Amino acid sequence: MAQSVNDLDTKLIEKQSELNSLSTSLDELTNAINTISTSTNITQGELNAIDKQVNEFQSLVNAKISEIDALNQEIIYKENEIRDKLNQVNFKINKIYKLSKITAKESLYFDLKVSPNSQYTKNLIYTDINYVNQASIEIDKIKSLVSSSEEIKSKLMSTIVDLNKKRDEISVKLANIKAQLNLQSQTRYQVISQINSLNKDILNITEEQKRIQKEEAEKLSQPAPIPIDVQTFVNGEIYFSGRGRDLYDGHGVGMSQWGAYGAGIEGFTAHQILQKYYTGISIEKYNANFEVTVPGYGTMDVETYLAGIGEVPSTACDANQANGSWNCWPKETIKAQVIAARTYVIAHLQKVGSGATVSNGPDFQVYVGGNAKAWAVEETSKEVIKYNGGLVTAVYSASHQGQSENNELVFTRASVATTKEGLVGTPYPYLRSVNDSAFAYRNQTYNFSWNTIAFTKAKIGEIFQTLGNIDIGNLQQIEIFTGGSNRVWAVGLIGDKSKKYVAGWRFKSEINDYIFENYPESQRSYLYSTEFRLVEVQN
Fold it and tell me: How deeply is 507 buried, as exposed, middle or buried, from its count of CB atoms within 10 A (0-12, 13-18, 19+)?
């Protein structure tokens, strides 16, 4: 099993590194797509504005054309009138001329003899001539209006040509932007597919790790034997002495649930509890909507999901009524739990996508269904924990034994390295070691202490060479490295061939595997937590 743990750890680190890289690429692509989409909207807006201008100018041109047509029709009408008047004048002149040539005898057939120079004749002709002249003046004015309208129409047409040219340029620009958007979207889809595939791989690996952890939990769930009398050990042997039970206490990072319980009794508000355990954070409203899928319960929105989480009791009571009871917890403690749980699930969904499936067990968040915590969800509606504007990874566990640990010393980068620095994970500034011993409630495992069976140094070297596949030669020295919480985060194994550093959790696992496989149940005294020290057996 030890080899399997090592393989799984290596694979998980590789997959997680690849996932982090892809997640960064996804963020960059998403930002690029958002920028391109904004540019698309702006460019489309410009195109729409030009289309509107073209339509407006075209309407003006059409109006001018109609106006010019009307004026030309008026000119034709006036010219026809002039032609008719001139014909009438010519007819009258010819008639007068003929009348002026008749004889006296012929005049008997007429009332009078018309003279071309008579006032009547002049009035008869000049009235028509004046009308013709006036009509000609009006035609000139109309032609001037036509000329002016043609000039305006020409300018409008020129503007339309320029606008259409600009429209064509913007259309080409928009087509290029849309092509770029399509390419980026396809790339983003591919990255999301890769991320989903990696998440499946990681899930498979973590499921295998859960199986191994479950096996270890089954081993450690047995009652601890009476501490061994160290005075009976053979000279040259060592044993491990510690306190706490990781199986019940958890990893010791972020918020302590029993610590928050004690804080609630002391009168802390939910926000004060969270600000105590998560360094430098702020509590803000989060307005995005996410859905989450829980096996056996279906898909629901986050607020509905939170109403059915377990983790801590749902019934609230006054601080003086809590007093260590599991039946009811301080109201502000339950609200702090809901805010942390909301932050944790939304931060997860931000990475994997809305509607993703999550476990209903302690490996994610305990979910029991129903709506018993609906009151706390409503009173903390949409509240999340943020650091520098971003959601935090709001991890929490049952008890910290008075002091939490820096996240990078618990969630290590590797299980084995050639330097202790090679084990250190990525530090988060809001997940720092916090002392809560002044108010944390002392539950049944708070001061649980234990000693292991004794080992020779040679035996420890053999355990890690055989089970852990860690060859350092003959073990010469063991170094223990602890963090702010006194939890062992690294163990240095110095041999005559090489020196290796093992993560505290891995060291504990290998020793416990050896105890389980080589000692009868009555003698199995395990490393129950990573909070231990090495003790040399004295004669």
Answer: buried
Segments of 377-439 assigned E as strands: 383-387, 390-391, 396-397, 416-417
Please report how the helices 270-277 and 331-352 are oriented relative to each other, as an axis angle in degrees rounded to 10: 60
Per-position DSSP letters for 455-496, written without gaps between them: EEHHHHHHHHHHTS----SSEEEEEEEE-TTS-EEEEEEEES
- Whether this prediction's pTM lies above 0.70 is answered by no
The residue whose two tokens read 């490996």 is: 363
Buried (b) or exposed (e) across 48-81, using 16+ Cβ within 10 A? eebeeebeebeebbeebeeebeebeeebeebeee
Token pair in block for residue 478: 């063991």
101 is written with which tokens? 């040539």
Number of residues assigned to the chain = 539
CB 339 within 8 A of CB 283: yes
Token pair for 329: 């917890």
d(CA 246, CA 397): 10
The β-bridge partners of 283 are: 385
**Cβ contact 153:160 at 8 Å:** no
The two tokens of residue 406 are: 């820096």
Measured CA to CA, the distance from residue 512 to residue 5 in angstroms comes to 13
Distance between CA atoms of residues 273 and 39, nearest Å = 44
Beta strand pairing call for 449-451 and 475-482 = unpaired
Per-residue pLDDT of the chain (539 residues; tens, 9 = 90+): 333 454 555 566 666 667 677 778 778 878 888 888 888 888 888 878 888 887 887 888 788 788 778 878 877 887 787 777 677 777 767 766 666 665 455 544 444 445 555 665 666 667 767 777 777 787 788 778 778 877 887 887 787 788 788 878 878 887 888 888 788 788 877 878 777 776 776 666 666 656 665 665 555 554 444 333 222 223 468 889 999 988 889 999 999 999 999 999 999 999 999 999 999 999 999 988 899 999 999 999 999 999 999 999 999 987 777 766 677 899 999 999 999 999 999 999 999 999 999 999 988 999 999 999 999 999 999 999 999 999 999 999 999 999 999 999 999 988 889 999 999 999 999 999 999 999 998 877 777 899 998 888 888 888 888 777 888 888 888 899 998 888 999 999 998 899 999 999 999 998 899 889 888 887 888 899 999 998 888 76
Short-list 304, 286, 383, 306, CA closest to 339: 383
* CB-based contacts of 534, cutoff 8 Å, min separation 6: 238, 240, 478, 480
Q: How far apart are the first and last CA of the chain?
A: 35
Please give the helix or strand (H or E) that residue 511 lies within, else none: helix 504-518
Q: Which own/partner contact pairs does 126-134 have at CB distance under 8 Å and 24+ positions apart?
A: 128/85, 128/86, 128/88, 128/89, 128/92, 129/89, 131/85, 132/82, 132/85, 132/86, 132/89
DSSP-H helix ranges across 221-324: 246-249, 257-265, 270-277, 302-307, 319-322
